[in-house]
């Protein structure tokens, strides 16, 4: 194991201390694991709180700031945060206009945020929740926990964050967040398993010359293993898996997301192939984002997320945002 | 009769078993989960033993409420709320008595397991901790030792199952052939029940 860490037990706390030093515009409570924008609560405006396991950076702490999240709660690596963190975050950012919890559809996140919502409501904070479940690699059925929440989380946090910044009421911000989720689909591919600090070795074995299709963001294997493919072949599989699931009638936002260990050189090349497949399938692209945004530690590979948008969602997407991980227009 | 002291011994024994088996739990969690079940539970049970050493609540219910709250506040993931709910649900069903019979405890533990099933939405055969807990409460009439054996068999029986809840469910058929880490840790908790009873008998004989 070669990792730039001290000991596995302090990985998250160490990262938070470093984040605090790099971002004075954030209040980082290392002990209680809550990251809050310094000017919170913003009077009269809905607050957005998200969180999840660490190891997905810049998600979620890197998306705290004007135009996006009000606060984030990082858990242990790949482990949901605990309700105490979310209650503390909600109390820190609520201006009286209510708080929207953005929750990825993983059992741990769902259960902890549900408990947190009850506790926060007991304290008089109005809470709404949106569940992100965009991953088409997991077929939804009565017998599974449903689709995973992955890349669409970025779209939901950015667009709902812009709506909150405009001063829209809680029920409207929640409705927009739901609309973004319902119009988003993702598919991911791993070229290598990741190594968690606690385990110190790859979470699954992927022999050289093979790849995993349909992976999530927690180092778990995907749905299918295949011999290595070219970037163009992978783009065909990923985009077609998404478009087989839904047919966008409007232009889409495209996120070509690195899983953590794939360089931008490869991601931009992959994006060229993704754009080719989208053009072949007649899908118009309003805006594309390429980079490492919803990662899985040092996993190599990429995911594609498409979000069908209308004029309002595009306007909110383009609105200024100023966070550690996403910044434009201000 | 079981008093607060017995329940403190149960949870302390469980913490020691989790400590001993943490690496195995994490190992079981790598092929079908995210390789942290052992580390997460160890963190939670360390907090439980610390809290119990500090406070030593007077009733069985208070022990379980305190321990459950610690697990919810420290474990994270799905295991935190689920194990926290198991202990708190069991405690709630015990009422405020200073001592309870084994039969009363068995009924309360069943209520705790039912609370877990409601929260997680899992049924028997979904390849979760329920597959160890439910056989254990069914066997409790025959004693804690029988429950330990039933839980262990239940955990082993998750190997051929396809997961339908939790992170392993996202792997579909590929979850088959691996023992569920949650069922395995649940079996440890039940084993600790039998162990602490045997320890108690040793110390009084």
Automatic annotation (TrEMBL), chain A:
<dbReference type="GO" id="GO:0004371">
    <property type="term" value="F:glycerone kinase activity"/>
</dbReference>
<dbReference type="GO" id="GO:0047324">
    <property type="term" value="F:phosphoenolpyruvate-glycerone phosphotransferase activity"/>
</dbReference>
<dbReference type="GO" id="GO:0019563">
    <property type="term" value="P:glycerol catabolic process"/>
</dbReference>
<dbReference type="GO" id="GO:0005829">
    <property type="term" value="C:cytosol"/>
</dbReference>
<keyword id="KW-0319">Glycerol metabolism</keyword>
<dbReference type="InterPro" id="IPR012736">
    <property type="entry name" value="DhaK_1"/>
</dbReference>
<feature type="domain" description="DhaK">
    <location>
        <begin position="7"/>
        <end position="328"/>
    </location>
</feature>
<keyword id="KW-0808">Transferase</keyword>
<dbReference type="Pfam" id="PF02733">
    <property type="entry name" value="Dak1"/>
</dbReference>
<keyword id="KW-0418">Kinase</keyword>
<dbReference type="InterPro" id="IPR050861">
    <property type="entry name" value="Dihydroxyacetone_Kinase"/>
</dbReference>
<comment type="pathway">
    <text>Polyol metabolism; glycerol degradation.</text>
</comment>
<dbReference type="InterPro" id="IPR004006">
    <property type="entry name" value="DhaK_dom"/>
</dbReference>
<protein>
    <recommendedName>
        <fullName>phosphoenolpyruvate--glycerone phosphotransferase</fullName>
        <ecNumber>2.7.1.121</ecNumber>
    </recommendedName>
</protein>
<comment type="subunit">
    <text>Homodimer. The dihydroxyacetone kinase complex is composed of a homodimer of DhaM, a homodimer of DhaK and the subunit DhaL.</text>
</comment>
UniProtKB/TrEMBL annotation, chain B:
<dbReference type="GO" id="GO:0004371">
    <property type="term" value="F:glycerone kinase activity"/>
</dbReference>
<dbReference type="GO" id="GO:0019563">
    <property type="term" value="P:glycerol catabolic process"/>
</dbReference>
<dbReference type="InterPro" id="IPR012737">
    <property type="entry name" value="DhaK_L_YcgS"/>
</dbReference>
<protein>
    <submittedName>
        <fullName>Dihydroxyacetone kinase subunit L</fullName>
    </submittedName>
</protein>
<feature type="domain" description="DhaL">
    <location>
        <begin position="5"/>
        <end position="195"/>
    </location>
</feature>
<keyword id="KW-0418">Kinase</keyword>
<dbReference type="InterPro" id="IPR036117">
    <property type="entry name" value="DhaL_dom_sf"/>
</dbReference>
<keyword id="KW-0808">Transferase</keyword>
<dbReference type="Pfam" id="PF02734">
    <property type="entry name" value="Dak2"/>
</dbReference>
<dbReference type="InterPro" id="IPR004007">
    <property type="entry name" value="DhaL_dom"/>
</dbReference>
<dbReference type="GO" id="GO:0005829">
    <property type="term" value="C:cytosol"/>
</dbReference>
<dbReference type="InterPro" id="IPR050861">
    <property type="entry name" value="Dihydroxyacetone_Kinase"/>
</dbReference>
């Amino acid at each position: 194991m070669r990792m730039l860490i001290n000991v596995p037990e302090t990985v998250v706390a160490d990262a938070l201390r470093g984040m605090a030093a790099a971002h004075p515009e954030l209040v980082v409570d290392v002990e209680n694991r809550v990251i809050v924008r310094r000017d919170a609560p913003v009077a009269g405006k809905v607050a957005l709180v998200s969180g999840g396991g660490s190891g997905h950076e810049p998600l979620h702490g890197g998306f705290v700031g004007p135009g996006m999240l009000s606060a984030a709660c990082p858990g242990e690596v790949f482990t949901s945060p605990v309700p105490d963190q979310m209650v503390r975050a909600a109390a820190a950012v609520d201006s009286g206009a209510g708080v929207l919890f953005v929750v990825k559809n993983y059992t741990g996140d769902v259960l902890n945020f549900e408990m947190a919502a009850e506790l926060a409501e007991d304290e008089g904070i109005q809470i709404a929740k949106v569940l992100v479940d965009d991953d088409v690699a997991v077929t939804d059925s009565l017998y599974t926990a449903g689709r995973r929440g992955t890349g669409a989380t970025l779209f939901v946090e950015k667009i709902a964050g812009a709506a909150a910044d405009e001063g829209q009421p809680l029920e409207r911000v929640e409705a927009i967040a739901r609309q973004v989720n319902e119009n988003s689909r993702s598919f991911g591919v791993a070229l290598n398993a990741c190594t968690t600090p606690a385990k110190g070795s790859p979470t699954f074995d992927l022999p050289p010359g093979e790849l995993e299709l349909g992976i999530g963001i927690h180092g778990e294997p995907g749905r299918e293993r295949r011999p290595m493919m070219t970037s163009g072949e992978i783009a065909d599989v990923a985009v077609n898996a998404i478009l087989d699931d839904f047919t966008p009638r409007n232009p889409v936002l495209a996120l070509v997301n690195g899983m953590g260990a794939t360089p931008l050189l490869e991601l931009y090349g992959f994006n060229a192939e993704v754009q080719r497949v989208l053009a072949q399938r007649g899908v118009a692209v309003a805006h594309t984002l390429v980079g490492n945004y919803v990662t899985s530690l040092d996993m190599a590979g990429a995911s594609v997320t498409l979000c069908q948008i209308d004029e309002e969602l595009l306007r909110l997407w383009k609105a200024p945002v100023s966070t550690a991980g996403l910044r434009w227009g201000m | 009769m079981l008093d607060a002291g017995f329940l403190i011994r149960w949870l302390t024994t469980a913490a020691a078993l989790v400590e001993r088996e943490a690496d195995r739990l994490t190992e079981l969690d790598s092929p079908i989960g995210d390789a942290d079940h052992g580390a997460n539970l160890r963190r939670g049970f360390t907090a439980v033993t610390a809290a119990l050493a500090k406070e030593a609540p007077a009733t069985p219910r208070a022990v379980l409420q305190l321990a459950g709250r610690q697990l919810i506040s420290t474990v994270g993931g799905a295991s935190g709320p689920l194990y926290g709910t198991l202990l708190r649900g069991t405690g709630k069903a015990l009422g405020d008595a200073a001592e309870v019979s084994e039969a009363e405890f068995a009924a309360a533990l069943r209520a705790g397991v039912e609370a877990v099933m409601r929260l997680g939405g899992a049924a028997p055969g979904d390849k979760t901790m329920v597959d160890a807990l439910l056989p254990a409460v069914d066997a409790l009439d025959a004693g804690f030792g029988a429950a330990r054996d039933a839980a262990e068999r239940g955990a082993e029986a998750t190997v051929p199952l396809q997961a339908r809840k939790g992170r392993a469910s996202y792997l579909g058929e590929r979850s088959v052939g691996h023992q569920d880490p949650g069922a395995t840790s649940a079996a440890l908790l039940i084993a600790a029940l039998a162990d602490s009873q045997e320890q108690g008998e040793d110390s009084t004989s």
